[in-house]
Structures are given as C-alpha cells and as structure tokens.
Amino acid sequence: MSDFSFNSFKVTLADHIAHVQLSRPEALNSMNTDFWLELPQCVRAIEASGEARVIVISSTGKHFSAGMDLGVFTNPKTVPMTGDPGRMGENLRRTVLQLQACLSSLEEVRLPVLTAIQGGCIGGALDMVCAADCRYATADAYFTIKETELGMTADVGTLQRLPKLIPQGVVRELAYTGRKFSAAEAKTHGLVNEVYETQEAMLDAVMTIAKQIAAHSPLAVTGCKEMLNYSRDHSVEDSLKYMATWQSGMFRPNDMMKTFQAKVTKQAPQFDNLFPVKQVFSE
C-alpha cells in the first residue's frame, strides 16, 4: 500500500490485513472534506489490490473521532447558503447522499471491516462504525448521537443502521437525548463485541481476530459478508434462495480440499487471494 497516500489516513498492509489509521489526532480526527473524499478511495484501493482479506480501522490520539467537521456544511462551495430554495434543497440532498455513500463503502467492500475505538466516537464517527462489520472499544470509549444536541437529525447512517444492531427503545432514547453512552453500555446492548482496558490491548486483540479471518478462504469469508448483509435486509425465504443461488455459482471444492489436506499434514492451508478488482473498461 506504499503507493497510496492519504491526508486523513495512514495505511499499511501485512499478512493480508490492511490497517487503516485515522491520522489527524491534532484535530481529534474530525471528518473534514479530505476524509469524505478519501475514505471510499482508500477502501476501494485496498479491495482493488486483491492482497487484503480484512480491513482494520483504528485511530490515533485521545479520541477515535470527534465526528463531522462542521466546515463541510458551512463551506458555500459545498452547501450554497443563498439562492433559490428549491435548488438549494436539491443540492443539499445530493451532498447528503454523497456523504452516505462514503460510509456505505465499508458495507459494500467485499472484505470484513473491524473497527477499534478509543475515546470519543461522536456524531458522524458513530455513523461510520455502524457501517463496519464488528466494533471493539477501550474502557474509556464513549459514543453519542451528537447531531440531536446540535439541532439537526443525524443523516448519514446511524438512525438507519443502529436499530439493526441494538434494541429499538435504546436507539430512540439515545437519538432523542443525544446523551453519551459508555463502552460498557455499548457492550451490554451488543454494539461492541468486546471492551479492553487499553488501546494497545485492544489493537493486539483485534489484530489477532483479523489474522484468524485472513487465515480462512477469502472466497468463503466474502460469501459470509454478502449473505449476512443480504439477510439483514431481506426475508428469511428470500435470503435462503439467494444463498442457494450464490452457492451454485461460487462454491467450488478447491478451498475445502486445501483445508482437509492441511488438517492431515497439520499445516495451515494456503488459499489463493481473490482476483483484484478492476474497472472493466479501464485503459
């Protein structure tokens, strides 16, 4: 990943694990214009390489992220403040859809995305981690739907994804009040998988989980993500039919045979990477 340079992230790739670190601690890793442009670019570059099998997103400094940099919405080049109300509204709608699409890239990428959260995970940052596959936190981590307190409705994913992760009544309380909720409470409700005393301990544990994922057949793992996302949004009947269709097209015995052979020889199986993602009509 040395060929990829971002203002908001530091990216390393080793042992089939892409580690993406938010790298603006002096600004509390707020989600500025660079962030919104670079996140989907970063995720797609990792996926396109074909080398990574899992993505870990962590952060630097005291807080995971202070959320949306308000400069994104106060910049007249992004959101015009004068002019015809209908045209202003249409422009704002497209802006919000673009921001939503940035975070949806974490769901759409074929690789599992694990997030490691320390300190504050505020506003837009909560939107982001809700789009990941798994969340892990330090004991001092806290979360808040900050937008309510600021006088607006959260608009880039929390209100749509959080009810799929924790009970409706809890989501509504958190959304209506905008109060902070701790890592311990988040774990109780199932938002985070585990809580660790320190960031170092958390990263060690998350990297261990990432290594377990990366050791499996990447075709099997991407199939799991595809099916889980589909099943979340469709009926059981429709999801079972889609599973059968997926299996009829994607299942081959090659990786399974490698697993059996590895057990016999007591060695770790070696799986081929997925093909790199390429633009069909690229030069």
UniProtKB/TrEMBL annotation:
Sorted keywords for this record are: Acetylation, Fatty acid metabolism, Isomerase, Lipid metabolism, Peroxisome
Is the Repeat keyword given for this protein?
no
Select a single GO molecular function from the record's annotations and give it.
isomerase activity
Q: Name one GO cellular component term.
A: cytoplasm
* Pfam assignment, any one: ECH_1
Name listed for the protein in its UniProt record = Enoyl-CoA hydratase
Which pathway does it serve? Lipid metabolism; fatty acid beta-oxidation
Keyword Lipid metabolism in record: yes
InterPro entries associated with the record: ClpP/crotonase-like_dom_sf (IPR029045), Ech1-like (IPR045002), Enoyl-CoA_hydra/iso (IPR001753), Enoyl-CoA_hydra_C (IPR014748)
Where does this protein reside within or beyond the cell? Peroxisome
Q: Which SUPFAM superfamilies match?
A: ClpP/crotonase (SSF52096)
What is a biological process (GO) this protein takes part in?
fatty acid beta-oxidation
Give the family per the record: Belongs to the enoyl-CoA hydratase/isomerase family.
